[in-house]
Amino acid sequence: MQAVEADARGDLRGIQDVADALGITPRTLRFYEDRGLIQPHRIGTMRVYTKREVGRMQLILRGKRLGFTLRDIEEFLDLYDADPQHIEQMRALSERVGQRIAELEHQREALDQTLAELRLIDAQARERIARSC
């Protein structure tokens, strides 16, 4: 009955519509469904997505884009469902975001060091080439 009411309000969307709106493939949606991160309703054999599921997918995609693991994302989503005020979710999110920032800063330092070394090698190579001409 809930699905019929949602459909009457236009809240249900098909898999291709959701995939297109999110810029992903239906296969991606099925992947996250298989992982239990989203649970589309079914009408016969057709998957239909509520605003809640689309919102969860947006959070999942944002989490992946920011470099969080599926385990991290699942934890955030579980906390979101369990805590209506989202305080625990915000605590966990803040902690994990801090860790991710530290990881990225470390990677940036490593990249900066690698770039400096490559620039030095390039300068030395160009200098040798110039001297030999």
Describe this structure as you would to a colleague.
Residues 87-121 form a coiled coil. This is HTH merR-type domain-containing protein. Keywords: Coiled coil, DNA-binding. Residues 15-79 form the HTH merR-type domain. One of its GO terms (molecular function) is DNA binding. This protein is mainly alpha-helical and 133 residues long. The protein has two domains: 1-65, Multidrug-efflux Transporter Regulator, Chain: A, Domain 2 (Orthogonal Bundle), CATH 1.10.1660; 69-133, no CATH class. The chain has helices at 2-9, 15-22, 26-34, 51-65, 70-82, 87-132; strands at 13-14, 41-43, 46-49. Helix 5 (70-82) runs antiparallel to helix 6 (87-132). The longest helix has 46 residues, at 87-132. It starts with a helix and ends with a helix.
Helix and strand topology:
Elements: H1 2-9, E1 13-14, H2 15-22, H3 26-34, E2 41-43, E3 46-49, H4 51-65, H5 70-82, H6 87-132
Antiparallel strand pairs: 1-3, 2-3
Helix pairs in contact: 4-5, 5-6
Keywords for this structure?
Multidrug-efflux Transporter Regulator, Chain: A, Domain 2, 133 residues, 3 strands, DNA-binding transcription factor activity, 2 domains, DNA-bd_dom_put_sf, disordered N terminus, mainly alpha
Lateral arrangement of strands in the main beta sheet: 1-3-2
What would the CATH topology of the largest domain be?
Answer: Multidrug-efflux Transporter Regulator, Chain: A, Domain 2
Task: Indicate the CATH class of the largest domain.
Answer: Mainly Alpha
Residue ranges: pLDDT <50 for 5 or more in a row? 1-9
- Which CATH architecture of the largest domain is right? Orthogonal Bundle
Structural class: mainly alpha
What's the story with the biggest beta sheet?
3 strands, antiparallel
Secondary structure tally, helices: 6
Shape: elongated
Could you tell me how far the N terminus lies from the C terminus, measured between alpha carbons in angstroms? 82 Å
- SSE sequence, one letter per element: HEHHEEHHH
Radius of gyration: 23 Å
- Count of individual beta strands: 3
Chain-averaged pLDDT:
88
Helical coverage, percent range: over 70%
In terms of DSSP E residues, the strand content is: 5-15%
Write down the domain tally: 2
Coiled coil: 87-121
GO molecular function, one term: DNA-binding transcription factor activity
Protein name: HTH merR-type domain-containing protein
Keywords: Coiled coil, DNA-binding
